[in-house]
Automatic annotation (TrEMBL):
It comes from Gallibacter intestinalis. This is tRNA (N(6)-L-threonylcarbamoyladenosine(37)-C(2))-methylthiotransferase MtaB. CDD domains: Radical_SAM. Residues 1-113 form the MTTase N-terminal domain. Residues 141-364 form the Radical SAM core domain. Its cofactor is [4Fe-4S] cluster. InterPro entries: Elp3/MiaA/NifB-like_rSAM, Methylthiotransferase, Methylthiotransferase_CS, Methylthiotransferase_N, Methylthiotransferase_N_sf, MiaB-like_bact, rSAM, rSAM_horseshoe. The keyword 4Fe-4S applies.
Length: 436
């Protein structure tokens, strides 16, 4: 039996898809490309925006068209919050909520064995999402160099625009030994970067213990935190991270807005100055500490001055990357019912301005790093640019001009490089030893 997967959304979804792939592979299924004809298609959905819902539906229909006789199983956040809507689609055979991903193999096997007709629903209610469910310990990822490791599930912050707490349930932390066993196996398998991830990683009750144990764990690898929420951490907290030598000098800190008025309406639980205090602490430790962020434009009631406050903080923080999102109504959230919804044309115009500002600051961040020596983990060869590529510890994409044959010896290896100039979507670098 052939099975194809498609993943939408966050790093947690990518991790969980890999875990499900390994379950099916262990059971004798052949994993094929999503563009190939398969007997089973599994779509792991996202619901962070209305666009994510729409993309999920598009892929469901697209998969079924490839083989009308195939079993289509759908899981993820869109299923958890809109299960009836997904189940009503003619193309869908199985829907499974976010806490049911470990059972999908059984659901698919039973569906095939019983030759079931109609859509099967396996969705727990919110108050039943109480356990951290193991999908199995992963041993590989599509990337051969960097691997995601899920350490936490759920969120209890309930930002007024966000549906994810309802999709993922309350906060649960993964067993520390399960995390460490997975990390040890991944390092033994050759992975050089472990990316700790979760729905709200900072809420993992064992995060400090995990970082302590990874610091002492044998092996040639580094650790990256996928994100930390300023709704949970502050400047003093991040100072405590500086003792970890394996930890990359990069954090994803979701800002969402630079306006105190909007932050309060979002229920974000911090103000712009507190956010900038975190930035200051990071940059005092490493002047070129990489900081990436998410920002929503057009939140209900956002004025032009509120938006200007956001642009101001983007300029002051010097982000390495800004992910811009237009506010999207999510049924069931507090913001959906708010008055003073911002019109689509205004949201579009502000989004364009934010993207332009973010791209300018990203280039300035790289430009300011010229001359720096950073550690790069080289990953793959870019034939178009005739360069070996990878990411610095502070998350700048590095391009090393090198012959493709020679590049093989540098793949999945660390190297100290000097940043030379802005190039493509990152920076051109040279090996440090060539400049000593």
């Amino acid at each position: 039996m052939k099975i194809a997967f498609h993943t939408l959304g966050c790093k947690v979804n990518q991790y969980e898809t890999e875990a499900m792939k390994e379950q099916f592979a262990s059971a004798g299924y052949e994993i094929v490309n999503e563009y190939d004809k398969a007997d089973v298609y599994l779509i792991n959905t996202c619901s962070v925006t209305g666009l994510a819902d729409r993309k999920s539906r598009q892929y469901i229909r697209k998969m079924k068209k490839k083989n009308p006789q195939a079993v289509v199983a759908v899981t993820g956040c869109y299923v958890q919050v809109s299960g009836d809507e997904v189940a009503a689609m003619d193309e869908v055979d199985i829907v499974a909520g976010t806490n049911e991903k470990n059972e999908i193999l059984n659901y698919v096997n039973q569906h095939i064995e019983n030759r079931s007709i109609g859509t099967e629903k396996h969705i727990l209610d919110y108050d039943q999402l109480t356990d951290f469910v193991e999908c199995g310990s992963i041993t590989s990822m599509e990337s051969r160099t960097r691997a995601y490791v899920k350490i936490q599930e759920g969120c209890n912050r309930f930002c007024s625009y966000c549906i994810i707490p309802f999709a993922r349930g309350p906060v649960r932390s993964r067993d520390v030994q399960a995390v460490m066993t997975e990390c040890e196996n991944l390092v033994k398998a050759g992975f050089k970067e472990l990316i700790l991830t979760g729905i709200n990683t900072a809420l993992c009750e064992h995060l400090d213990e995990i970082l302590d144990r990874l610091e002492k764990m044998p092996g040639d690898f580094r650790v990256r935190l996928s994100s930390l929420e300023p709704t949970v951490i502050n400047a003093e907290y991040v100072k405590g991270l500086f003792k970890y030598k394996r930890l990359c000098h990069h954090l994803h800190l979701s800002l969402q807005s630079g306006s105190d008025n909007v932050l309060k309406a979002m229920n974000r639980r911090y103000n712009r100055n507190e956010y900038l205090d975190i930035v200051k602490a990071l940059r005092e430790f490493d002047i070129h500490y990489g900081i990436t962020t998410d920002i929503i434009v057009g939140f209900p009631g956002e004025t032009e001055q509120d938006f200007e406050d956001t642009l101001d903080i983007v300029n002051r923080a010097g982000f390495g990357k800004v992910h811009a999102f237009k506010y999207s109504k999510r049924k069931g959230t507090a913001a959906c019912e708010m008055s003073n919804q911002v019109s689509p044309p205004v949201k579009k115009e502000r989004s364009i301005r934010l993207i332009e500002t973010g791209e300018r600051e990203s280039k300035l961040f790289i430009e300011s790093s010229i001359g720096d020596v950073r550690q790069v983990l080289f990953e793959e060869y870019d034939k178009e640019n005739q360069a070996l590529t990878g990411y610095t510890d502070n998350y700048i994409k590095a391009y090393l001009e090198i012959d493709e044959t020679e590049a093989e010896s540098y793949k999945n290896a660390f190297a100290d490089v000097k940043i030379e100039k802005i190039f493509a979507d990152g920076a051109q670098v040279v090996l440090k030893d060539k400049n000593d």
